[in-house]
Write a structure and sequence with these properties.
The chain is of the alpha/beta class and 430 residues long. Helices cover 30% and strands 20% of the residues. The longest helix has 18 residues. Bound molecules: guanosine-5'-diphosphate, 6-O-phosphoryl inosine monophosphate and magnesium ion. Guanosine-5'-diphosphate (GDP) binds next to helix 1 and strand 3.
Length: 430
C-alpha cells in the first residue's frame, strides 16, 4: 500500500502525532497536507516530549523524508524555531530529509495580527482561533493575493512583502487595531528567507515519483474532521481541508495514484474540543475535571499550541459515523483508553433525539446541532490500570466491549488502541 492517511476523527488533538510516529518508522515520506502551526502534535519518546506544530511528526524517525505540502500555510519564523528545537533534541534536519512545497503559502506577522483583530471584532461570536494567522493566510490564498514559499526565491520578494504589510495595516486600522511595523517584518523575513531557501522543492513531483517507484507515503492530517472548512461544524472550523481528500489537493497527488489507500481515523476514547462551537455530548464540573485532568500530566487536556483548557465530553458516535463517511476511513485507532480506567460505567452517544425521532446519521452535516439530545448507551467500565497492557487479549473484558461498541457504531474495525502517551504504549488488534 503506497498511501496511508492519518486523519483526526473529531475536533483535533486526537493523538494524531503519536500515531503518525507509530506508523512512520517504515515510511519513505511523511507529509503534512493542511493547516499550519495551529497544529500541536505531541510525540513522547522515552524522556523526550516533542511538540510539533509545522514539521511532520515522522521526522523523529531517521528514515522518512518530511514534506510540508502545498496545502499548508507556513510561518517562516515558526518553521525555523521548530527546526532549531529538533536539532537541539538530536533530530537530523537538513534539506535531504525535509522539504517545503514552493506552492505552500506564507504566514506573515500581518496575518497573525489580523487573526487576533478579527477575533476581537467577532466579540461573543468568536471562533476561538489559535491566533496563528491561519484564517487570514488562507483568505489571501483564496483571494489570490497570497505570497507563496516559492516567492522567497524572487529578487523583489521583500518589496511584495512590504506592500502586503501596508495593505494589512489598512485592514488593521479599519478593525481598530494597531498597525504592525513594516520594517521589522521585512527585516525578520530577510533573515528567515536565507535559511529557508535550501528546503524549497517541487514536492508534488517528488511524491508522485515516489508512489510510482512503490515507495510508502504517510500523510499526516492536522486538526480534525469536525474542523474541516467544508465538512466541519461551520463556521466554528479552521480554514483548510482537514479531511482525507485534502491529501490530493494538499500534496499534489493524483487520486488514481491512491489505489488501495488506507485511511486511518484517529479518535480519542472520549470527545474534546478547543474553542467555540457546538458540542452535544459536552460534560461539566467534576466529570469534566475527571476527563480533562488537572494539568499535572503532560497528556491532560490542555492545548499543545495555546495551553487552553479543552472542553470535554462523552464519545459522540453520531459524529464519528459522519467522520468515517466523509473521510472514507478504513480503520480506527482509539487513543487514551487509559484515561477511562476507574469509571464504573461509560456513556457512549449512539444517536440523537429530536422531536420524538432518533437518528444515527446526520442529514445536513454537523453545523447546526441545536435541538439534538444525545441518546446514550451505558456500558460497563473497568477498574484496572491498562497502561502496561500490550496485547488485545489482556485488555479487561469491559474495555474490549467498549472498543467493540465503537467499531460497531463506526462500521470499521479498531486496529489499534493506545494506553499511554509513550511510543510503545499501544495494543494491536491482530
Ligand atoms: P494531536 O494534535 O492529534 O497530535 O494530539 P495532541 O498531541 O495535541 O494531544 C494528544 C495528547 O494526548 C498528547 O499530550 C499526547 O501525548 C497524549 N496521548 C496520546 N495518546 C495517549 C494515550 O493513549 N494515553 C494518554 N494518557 N495520553 C495520550
Ligand atoms: P491539532 O492538529 C484542536 C481550532 C481552534 C479554533 C478553530 C480555528 O493539534 O489537532 P484556527 O487557528 O485554525 O483558525 O482556529 O480550530 N483548532 C484546533 N483545535 N487541535 C488543533 O490542531 C487545532 N487547530 C485549530 O481552537 O476552534
Ligand atoms: Mg494537537
Amino acid at each position: 500500500m503506497a498511501l496511508q492517511i492519518i486523519v483526526g476523527a473529531q475536533w483535533g488533538d486526537e493523538g494524531k502525532g503519536r500515531i503518525v510516529d507509530w506508523f512512520a518508522a517504515d515510511s519513505d515520506y511523511v507529509a503534512r497536507y493542511n493547516g499550519g502551526d495551529n497544529a500541536g502534535h505531541s510525540v513522547t519518546v522515552g524522556p523526550k516530549l516533542f511538540k510539533l506544530h509545522l514539521i511532520p511528526s515522522g521526522i523523529i524517525h531517521p528514515k522518512p523524508v518530511a514534506v510540508l505540502g502545498n496545502g499548508m500555510v507556513v510561518n517562516p519564523k515558526a518553521f525555523l524555531d521548530e527546526t532549531d528545537m529538533l536539532q537541539k533534541a538530536g533530530v537530523e534536519i537538513n534539506p535531504q530529509r525535509l522539504r517545503i512545497s514552493y506552492a505552500a503559502h506564507l504566514i506573515t506577522p500581518a496575518h497573525m495580527a489580523l487573526d487576533k483583530a478579527q477575533e476581537v471584532a467577532r466579540g461573543k461570536g468568536n471562533i476561538g482561533t489559535t491566533g496563528r494567522g491561519i484564517g487570514p493566510a488562507y483568505t489571501d490564498k483564496a483571494t489570490r493575493r497570497g505570497l507563496r514559499v516559492g516567492d522567497l526565491l524572487a529578487p523583489d520578494f521583500l518589496q511584495h512583502l512590504s506592500a502586503q504589510i501596508d495593505e494589512a495595516n489598512q485592514q488593521l486600522s479599519f478593525l481598530g487595531a494597531s498597525p504592525i511595523d513594516n520594517g521589522a517584518v521585512v527585516e525578520e523575513f530577510q533573515r528567515c528567507r536565507e535559511a529557508m531557501l535550501p528546503y524549497i522543492a517541487d514536492t508534488s513531483l517528488e511524491l508522485c515519483n515516489a508512489i510510482s517507484a512503490g515507495q510508502r507515503i504517510l500523510a499526516e492530517g492536522a486538526q480534525g474532521t469536525l474542523l474541516d472548512i467544508d465538512h466541519g461544524t461551520y463556521p466554528f472550523v479552521t480554514s483548510s481541508s482537514t479531511v482525507a481528500s485534502g491529501v490530493f489537493t494538499g500534496l499534489g497527488i493524483g487520486v488514481t495514484a491512491a489505489e488501495g489507500a488506507q485511511v486511518t481515523g484517529v479518535c480519542k476514547s472520549f470527545q474534546t474540543r478547543v474553542g467555540s462551537g457546538p458540542f452535544p455530548t459536552e460534560v461539566f464540573d467534576d466529570l469534566a475535571l475527571r476527563l480533562r485532568g488537572t494539568g499535572q500530566n503532560p497528556w491532560d487536556e490542555y492545548g499543545t499550541t495555546t495551553g487552553r483548557a479543552r472542553r470535554v465530553g462523552w464519545l459522540d458516535g453520531v459524529l464519528l459515523r459522519y467522520a468515517v463517511r466523509v473521510n472514507g476511513m478504513t480503520e480506527l485507532v482509539i487513543t487514551k483508553l487509559d484515561i477511562l480506567s476507574g469509571f464504573q460505567t461509560l456513556q457512549l452517544c449512539v444517536g440523537y433525539h429530536q422531536n420524538g425521532k432518533t437518528i444515527v446519521d446526520l442529514s445536513f452535516g454537523p453545523s447546526n446541532l441545536e435541538g439534538y439530545e444525545p441518546v446514550y448507551q451505558e456500558l460497563p467500565g473497568w477498574a484496572e490500570d491498562v497502561s502496561a497492557i500490550r496485547t488485545w487479549d489482556d485488555l479487561p473484558a469491559a474495555a474490549k466491549g467498549y472498543l467493540d461498541a465503537i467499531a460497531h457504531l463506526a462500521g470499521v474495525p479498531v486496529r489499534l488502541a493506545s494506553v499511554g502517551p509513550e511510543r510503545e504504549q499501544m495494543v494491536e488488534n491482530k
